[in-house]
Write a structure and sequence with these properties.
Number of domains: 2
Radius of gyration: 16 Å
Number of helices: 4
Helix content: 40-55%
Largest sheet: none
Structural class: mainly alpha
Order of helices and strands: HHHH
Distance between the termini: 32 Å
Shape: globular
């Protein structure tokens, strides 16, 4: 599993890093304070929150299966159907 963070203090704590290591989680290399390093990923998550999750009532998901299905369906739409400004629509 890949765990992305903004390298804030809470994500650099020894206990947190040990927990990730214990569960074989990878921390991607990233430069501190470089907001453009993950611009595409940040855009995807922002659109998911706005377009998919923003329209749902609380609780957002019925269970883990519902969450996984919702995110997978949105990613499929985002990658194959959604128009992107970076691609001149």
């Amino acid at each position: 599993m890949l765990v992305h963070s903004h390298q804030g203090g809470q994500y650099c704590a020894n206990a947190y890093r040990a927990l990730l290591d214990q569960h074989d989680c990878l921390r991607p290399p990233g430069r501190r304070d470089e907001c453009l390093d993950n611009a595409q990923a940040k855009s995807l998550w922002s659109r998911l929150k706005t377009e998919e999750l923003g329209s749902r009532e609380w609780p957002v998901f019925r269970d883990l299966t519902d969450a996984q299905h919702s995110v997978a369906t949105y990613f499929d739409y985002y990658n194959h159907e959604r128009r992107h400004s970076a691609l001149a629509y």
